[in-house]
Amino acid sequence: MINSRICEILGIKYPVFQGGMAWIADGKLAAAVSNGGGLGIIAAGNGSASRVKEQIEIAKSLTDKPFGVNIMLMSPHADEIADLVAESGVQVVTTGAGNPSKYMAKWKEAGIKVIPVVASVAMAKLMTRVGATALIAEGGESGGHVGELTTMVLVPLVCDATDLPVIAAGGIADGRGFAAALMLGACGVQMGTRFLSAEECTTIHENYREKILKANDLSTMVTGKRLGHPVRSLRTSFSREYLKKEYSGISDEELAGQASGSYPLAVREGDVENGCFLAGQVCAMVNKVQSAAEIIREVVEEAEPVLKGASEWVR
Ligand code: TUI
């Protein structure tokens, strides 16, 4: 049984969060993860406040356990969704792709536990100062919007920079990764890509799931550096062509237009020509379909002997 201080703070059984995957993580997946003893998270992504409200209601109807909402701060609807969560009895908010400082007072007043994703030490220190409950330190192995640092480097640096509980994210998909994250000083993990194969992850097209199940070590790449929003996704003809365009003479405006709509096209239509399939490097380790509860149990059960065996290294 692996337990840590984040479990007491949030009232969850296992210190395992499900990443707030934009266009993918809905109320059904979040509830399944929370029912499995982890922390399920609804992704607001670029969606409207009314869509998020709907998903919160769905999650509430499916679980009496705590769950969270992830707010993607680059969304045009972020302000509205920040208000919505404060009024909806949501217990946990995680944020991504930006600085949530301006919402902190409102969320704290509403009794929400705020757990921002940070990709740098400076952001970890700022979030500690403005009253975050815990931090998610996400390394560039992750899928979607990525920072510069790897999980191996970011997690210990963030742990040194804050007294808050730190959750490690990026590059974690099994018990070995979970155990390693605890060794780096984290008190829990967040996994996104591993939950793409969950039975309850029904928002993704069959093509998406198949690509994840078949992926290998070299299946992902990072595009979008030129426009300042690097994104890790599956290596497809679309992403290869996009990368070529980044190094061609086209304008920033034209380049930005090339990616618009490509995430929902991948998720909803499974469009292998024009879709951008966000995925972390661990897609190579995701090889079977299981329920969310099984995924959590398996990862925790794998980590236990790894952690117990760690003392073998010390003579
Ligand atoms: O947010 C993510 N991953 C995402 S968001 C997303 S949707 C998207 N749509 C359009 C463009 C880009 C993304 C797909 N995947 N992960 C959490 C995360 N947050 N990773 C890195 C950060 C981050 C980066 C900079 C957090 C804070 C930050 O602060 C910068 C600043 O100073 O404002």
Describe what you observe in this structure.
The chain has 13 helices and eleven strands. By secondary structure, the chain is an alpha/beta fold. The protein has an eight-stranded parallel sheet with strand order 1-9-8-6-5-4-3-2. Strands 7-11-10 form a three-stranded antiparallel sheet, covered by helices on one side. Strand 4, helix 5 and strand 5 form a beta-alpha-beta unit. The protein binds ligand TUI. Ligand TUI binds next to strand 5 and strand 7.
The helix/strand order is HEHEHEHEHEHEEHEHEHEEHHHH
The proportion of residues forming helix, as a percent range, comes to 40-55%
The termini sit apart by 26 Å
Radius of gyration in whole Å, from Cα? 18 Å
Give me the count of strands.
11
Strand content is 5-15%
Question: Strands of the biggest beta sheet: in what spatial order?
Answer: 1-9-8-6-5-4-3-2
Based on secondary structure, the structural category is alpha/beta
> How would you sum up the global shape?
globular
The low-confidence parts are: none
Mean of pLDDT:
97
Query: Largest beta sheet, briefly?
Result: 8 strands, parallel
The bound ligands are: ligand TUI
Number of helices: 13
